[in-house]
Amino acid sequence: MAVFLTVSLIELLLIPKASFLQLCFSFLWQMAFGLLMGLVFGKASVWMINKINLDSSGLYPVLSLSLSVLTYSCTSLLEGSGLLAVYVMALVMGNSDIIYRHSIFRFNEGFAWMMQILMFILLGLLVFPHELPAIAWQGLALSSLLMLVARPIGVFVSTLFTSYTWKEKLFISWAGLRGAVPIVLATYPLLSGVEKGQLFFNVVFFVVLTSALIQGATLSPLARRWGLSTGENTVTPHSLELVSIGKTNSEMIEVHVSERAVIAGSEIRSIPLPNDALITAIIRGNKIVTPRGSTKLLGGDILYVLAEKSKREQVKSLLLKEEAESKESV
């Protein structure tokens, strides 16, 4: 949305005769087609990653990156929103069960941090300190307007028919414009040759700086004060994958045992796993438990199961079945 609005406004500035109706049609097409392409390529990427056999596990993160580039290029070629398509594709992949999940996530997380660092370096290179005092108060005024007026109005209007509480809406409003996106967008007027493009960039500097310093520093205390920081972090503290060779017929499956799981409280030897499936490790809190036949599984355990790829869904459905589901099936 931000990219579309920025490009559209630049076009209106450079081409006064540009059709507003055409921009509206372009917006609808880009968003709708970008969403559709993101869903299609997301599902296709999950299927491809789970089905393809590569020589090395290190190639799977590269494959995921290449699929995102393919998604962006194909969508942009057909005049859709490539950024929206990649975003939706990433959401689909991130919420799907894929092999080498941890390797792919760690690679993309590191790559994303590297790009954000690069953007902030770019911000520093394009800002000239001797030009800042002249527009300091205007930049601070605009930043205050965005933080205290514009963003809250936008958030409250867009969440008008949602179940968010007032505190949650205010908290979303306070989560402002930090990050690399405003920096990238601020370069568009410079690259397009818009009059006073450097002025736009300098103003964005103040917005990003004040948002990062003020809003970024107060988000966590504000969340704790309003009771919005409840819940546990579900990030697994350990990971275990078969990373030696990609063409193996088996894979390591990660299973989180819920408190209501049928297998919670059961001994491993009583679980009817397929003959070629083996529980290789149990993560319980911050400890690794060596699995034996007499070991009881508890709610909250994280299991690593070595099984054939073809029996992945069978093993997961068995280990993830909950009490309610079991009673219904009976």
Topology, element by element:
Blueprint: H1 2-14, H2 20-51, H3 59-77, H4 82-94, H5 101-126, H6 136-158, H7 166-174, H8 181-192, H9 197-225, E1 250-256, E2 278-284, E3 287-289, E4 302-308, H10 312-320, H11 323-329
Antiparallel strand pairs: 1-4, 2-3, 2-4
Helix pairs in contact: 1-8, 2-3, 2-4, 3-4, 3-5, 6-7, 6-9, 8-9
Explain this structure.
The chain contains eleven helices and four strands, in the order αααααααααββββαα. Helix 2 (20-51) packs parallel to helix 4 (82-94), helix 3 crosses helix 5 and helix 6 (136-158) crosses helix 9. The protein has helices at residues 2-14, 20-51, 59-77, 82-94, 101-126, 136-158, 166-174, 181-192, 197-225, 312-320, 323-329, and strands at 250-256, 278-284, 287-289, 302-308. It has a four-stranded antiparallel sheet, with helices on one face. The radius of gyration is 25 Å and the shape is elongated. The chain has 330 residues and is an alpha+beta fold. Strand 2 (278-284) and strand 3 form a beta hairpin. The chain has three domains: 1-115, no CATH class; 127-231, no CATH class; 250-329, 2-Layer Sandwich (Alpha-Beta Plaits). The model has no long low-confidence stretch (mean pLDDT 84).
Count the beta strands: 4
Rounded Rg: 25 Å
Mean pLDDT: 84
Uncertain regions: pLDDT < 50 for 5+ in a row? none
Inertia-based shape: elongated
Residue share in β-strands:
5-15%
- Structural class given helices, strands, pairing? alpha+beta
Number of helices: 11
Tell me roughly what share of residues is in helical segments: 55-70%
Distance between the termini: 49 Å
Number of domains: 3
Largest sheet, strands/sense/barrel: 4 strands, antiparallel
Q: Strand order across the biggest sheet?
A: 1-4-2-3
Which series of helices and strands comes N to C?
A: HHHHHHHHHEEEEHH
